## 1
Amino acid sequence: MEFTAKQIAEYLGGTVDGDGNATVNTFAKIEEGQPGALSFLSNSKYTHFLYSTKSSVVLVNRDFKPEQPVSATLVRVDNAYESLARLMSLYASMKPGRTGISPLASVSDKATVGRNVYIGPFAVIEDGATVGDNTQIYPHVTVGEGAHIGDGCILYPHVTIYYGCRIGSRCILHAGSVIGADGFGFAPTSDGYDKIPQIGIVELEDDVEIGANTCIDRSTMGRTVIHKGVKLDNLIQVAHNVEIGENTVMSAQTGIAGSSKVGSWCMVGGQTGISGHISLGDHVNIGAQSGILGNIKDGQTIMGYPAFDYKSFMRSSVIFRKLPDMNKEIDALRKEVDELKAKLQEK
């Protein structure tokens, strides 16, 4: 597939600086540019690469002003990074999807499989399961009894969907993710721990993406719910009865304990821990490696353990680094005070 700079600008609502007939057929980072490639520039740290890149076309923000001659054709857009994402999505959508059921797959006669579906070798679709139209199920995926997969989904190898769980349309589940394993529910007794049956389900709404080896546990009762548009990174743990609001994103190794609620449009940094039975409001931003121990109101930006206001955390971090010197100063001041007290007592 090949596109001209003029076609790209028209699609993105941008303008062309340079040769509108310059063509591209692939993508490349600006520092690794090559003829026929499309690159982008949105971070000023990479500006110096623009003047030497071999890429044919470069997306830049509309207000960008080059300080040196540029050989590449520039396409000016409102947001270069967002525009790149749109182009890459368009490129991916134009690739033909796989179809057909492998003779090595195990598909129950009691399952319902839609049109234009791909089911790879050694995938298992159990009794009562439903697979929607245009969904791709890669090798070694298991779709449990009575589970539902919507239209246009992609389940990469070794994804496991436990019985009764529901996946919306256009969801992407990366390799090794597990949807619907038992929640961590045990009742302490004098002899040890009795398992509490986890009889609920997990429900993923439309346009959710789940990273590799991420686990979302089924609820004790009711549902663990991931609302539409949520994006979860690799190696995330979502415990039973958790609810994550629309369009929230979470980075790798985050863990959410049971029955907590996370609002819409939140951004959670990697290795964050969120304790159980608390609520986070909408538009909450959490810095990496934070510990969330209580409720958070809408719109807050927090960091640290336990987490508190981001600006206060940064100021505290500066002071923390100075603590050894401050301790020496305090000891010296304490010594001076003791000496002054001794002199006053002598008088």
Note: The longest helix spans residues 310-346.
## 2
Amino acid sequence: MKSFAAIDFETANQHRSICSVGVVIVKDGVITNHQLHTVATHCGFDLTQHHHALADAEACAAIALKIL
């Protein structure tokens, strides 16, 4: 298997509330997953307030709209 996605979830408390998700994409044995601001820029979204929850969520929505 040379193409897959590796996913990790970080939880915030004993109730396993997810506070962070990491995804790395491997295609033909090569890691290809960029940082949010890099992908957002490539998709035409100006992420000027990176690490601000609302701005990051808007960037994720713009990326999803672009690729789906």
Note: Residues 1-33 form one domain.
## 3
Amino acid sequence: MTRFAFFLALLCTVHAETPTGLLAVKSAAEKLGQRPGMKSARVGVALLRLGANSDVVVDVDGKKSFIPASTTKVLTSVTALDALGPDFTFATTLGHTGTIADGTLTGNLVIKGSGDPTLAEYGWDDLFEKWTAIVKAASIMKVEGQVIGDSSFYGGQPRPGNWSWKDLGNYYASGAQGLNFFNNTFRVRFLPGKVGGPAKLLGTNPELPGVTLHNEILTGSASSGDQGYVYAAPYTNEVRLRGSIPSGSTFTIKGALPEPALTCAQLFHQYLTKAGVPVSQEASTTRSAGETTPPITTLTTETSAPISNLLQRMNHKSINLFAETILNRTGKTHGGNGSTASGVTAVKAYFEKHGIIASGFDMHDGSGLSSLNTITPRQMVYFLKAADSDTHAAILRRSLPIAGRTGTLKSVAVGTAAAGRVRAKSGTLSRAKCYAGYVDASSGQRYAFAIMVNGYTKKYSDVKPGIEAVMARMAEL
């Protein structure tokens, strides 16, 4: 390499972020707004240079409010790491009230949760086998009382009040409970009939004693996919199944458990009975009893993985249950009562702590399922900038999927300059698609970015190439 070529290469490295490159990003954002289905849509893009010369270098409607969908989980993640720390774990306690004499517990077995979203997430047999052995080891061979599920840790409102009725009964809107169990979901199995005719309800897993299922599911064509919806409110004993499933073999859809704490208590009651430990009264919950549990004698405690692990799973798979319970726990640690509102207060405090103007920002849940959430692209990148200077910045970055590689971004920007260089959380709601995260540009400069599209009328596949083009131009800086 000649001396002139060396200095030219050095100059290009130092000044890789050229006006032409930034104009290319802005042009790509503007072209995104001209794609099919975007005539009545809105596009917001903000790109912020990180480091010593930090500044917003691209802004397309960056001060306008957008529905962020699941990019809301970025706010939940950052605030949780700040308030709880990466090593925080959730605990679930199995204990009892009363006295033990001659092999009989005169009192209740109590399962007391503190919001662990992973309790029995893959099934309950191993957990209940362990708990039953511990009960027997405590010389309890008979229970003169009940198995009680205590879900009082977060109060009595398990879902944000403004979630859509169409969502409430479905697995992705299972909400946050003090005692979460089996992802707060149940499976419903059907046998399809003739196309256009009813599908036969075969049963649920787990069983739901006392709950009546009204089956209105029809059979669609073999290519129609899962169009089945569960309509139910928390604590209900009436569940309606509507929509359609594809014709062919048996088919399963998932719903939100009406009361996870009750299901947990009922199933453990059944397991104990089969294992030779009879329980004299039916399982119940503290909510049903209308009172709090008296102090319990602990038999064992289950502990979740560290929150750093949970955030990685949450952001890679966009798990709403994790987001809601983590937001609530953040709110409780911040001095609130563990409600959604207390979690939102903690997020707003983070805004204030880092001098981010909150005008136009509105938050109603931790997962982004609410269509009333709003944030500006500028607020999002300023939030990401603040997070990047925090102690746990590396943990947040690792929790975000990589474009073209992992999680919900595995099929995004494949074969473009953005593949492997963009780490971001995606967000999807009806007619809304958003991305927020970080770009490691080819020059070595790092950026925080937000791309928000609201109101498109075509398929996402018509919008996706435009979003990928914006990501690619960012990565090429």
Note: DSSP finds 13 helices and 19 strands in the chain.
